[in-house]
User: Fold this.
Amino acid sequence: MASIFGGDGVFDYIVVGAGIEGSSTAYRLAKDNKSVLLLEQFPLPHSRGSSHGKSRITRYTYAQDYYMAMMPENYRCWKVLQDEVGKELYIKTGLLCIEKNFGEEFQISRELLIKNKLEFGDITASAACNRWPGLQFNSSYGMFIDEQAGVLRADRCLEAFHQIFRKNGGVLKDSEKVLRIIPGTMVTVETNKSSYKAKSIVLAPGAWSSAVLKPLGLNLPLEVWRINVCYWKIKNPTDFQDMPVFIDYSGTHHIYGLPCLEYPGHMKICYHIGNNHIDPELRDAEAGGRQNDIEILKTFVQDHFPGLESQPSIIETCIYTTTPDDGPVLDVHPVYPNIVIGCGFSGHGFKLAPVVGQILSDLASGKAPSFDISHNRISRFNIQNSRL
Assistant:
């Protein structure tokens, strides 16, 4: 561990938020032989944010070349982490990409896979329905399979980052809420339990980003959504034998699904947006009323997944923090360059976490990231910010 760390609570780096993005960043900094403190407001493990649960989709398929360009390194890093902890973190299933009338996102994603020489295969709707009898799509739907896509074991991935972070000398403190951040050459972080200093800090507070950033004079256009995570009972398991994960791009928002690691005999199918904005402190208190996303999913399942029961048997909750362009913020504070920000992952950040950790750790260290983050800069938003 670097010598700057001492009993007075001084570190090289402090990372705020021990979700998947903050944990990946802390892991990367600790592996660089730096003294790192990782702070989490809730007791770990918890289900209050965006990183809990047992499964997330990972895929090469993107309609944005700059995100697809990150994916080979993400896959490599997940494999490294898997080897470090000796536990399976990734299950290869393939990804069935679907869009009615062979739409724009379908076409762009397919063309980018060809451009980047990534493994995929076209499949007709008829062939897909024959292969997986629990499906029902007509010939107006375009389909292809991203062969290397699959499922990340989300809870194991998060714990793996924590385990190797600690192994490399990192200090993880949960149940410790940040109350105040004082900028300076050495940034001070005051919590409900203590006070710490570091030459640079990384803020990855998820749905609490606005609450943390506004006192620093930064008002980002972030929206917090409660997402219903729905599990649908399978009528006949053989109808979905070796079924890949899927994304249907046909509607205003995606519908996605994956084999259920949480509840045997079920499939997880979700709508890629919530019903309304929420205060993350009141996530469950604001539930109720007509939940349009679930109604949309019921119709989708009835129309296209006759092999599932038409009502979800289990509904859980997650949180998305979105930006207007659905791209995360990866940048330094416009006034305080030793305050680094990673937020607004818009429901597709989990798979990107290893590269996000590299980018945020590079920014905290004063290095130029090795990936193009021009589309992730704060300056893309037309906002007015005030100095603290």
Remarks:
- The radius of gyration is 21 Å.
- Confidence is low (pLDDT under 50) at residues 1-6.
